[in-house]
Amino acid sequence: MARASTRIASVLVAAGVATATPSIAFAAPQAPTAKAPAQAATAQAPAAPQHNWKILWEPPSDEVTAAAYWKSMGIKGQRQKKGNWCGPAAAASALSYHAKVGSGTQASLAKKMATNKIGFTSPVAMGREMTNYINKAWKTKGTKYRAHRSVKNPTLWNTTRYSYFRGQGPLVLTVYAKKSWYPKAGKAVAHYVVIYGFDDTTNWNESTYLIWDPAHGKRKLKATRWEKIAYAGKLVVRW
């Protein structure tokens, strides 16, 4: 489903056309006894149109123009209400792109995903309950979100772009807390964060993701870092 795409270069055209009007020079009048020298009339040929092309292969340096390259999916990020509710909070944040999410959504998802019972959130259960939530809100059927394994760096970037342009919504990542932003966390502690935007660069390894972290808030993640912090199985819950 992922497809590679490239940034379309912006082309600014400044076309200047200079057209010269033909001018004819005549000899000045002479005395009757003097033979006026014959002077041929000369005409200046019209100048060829001049086109100045400027191609911007990279984003402009000014922030206003460069901001157009950031693609963002509108979400209402939620902070996790309990220490082990990063999964329900991430799911609720991603779901806010698709449907109305209330203050009680985290608790409801935590119960349905068995977060309270087993102490953590299963990516499989998350995909199932996110699908159920959307189907109920939209009054429809069919699988929406599900867990995907072994997602590599280029695939994640292509999938993120595809999800954005197809309106399929944010993606939920499972990362090692210690390897990402929490160096004091235990080695095996998993953490959920949401990709809700990205820098639409020409190459995936130059891009950066916009991240919602339920334990912190907004963050950024270099596209090259995903596999370095991805939890065992490199699991991504996406449409």
Automatic annotation (TrEMBL):
Key word Zinc present in the record?
A: no
Q: What are the alphabetically sorted keywords of the record?
A: Signal
Residues annotated as signal peptide: 1-27
- Offer one Pfam family short name for this entry: Peptidase_C39_2
Indicate the segments forming the Peptidase C39-like domain, all copies: 77-215
Kindly indicate whether the keyword Signal belongs to this entry. yes
Q: What is this protein called?
A: Peptidase C39-like domain-containing protein
Which species is listed as the source? Answer: Actinomadura namibiensis
Q: Source taxonomy lineage?
A: Bacteria, Bacillati, Actinomycetota, Actinomycetes, Streptosporangiales
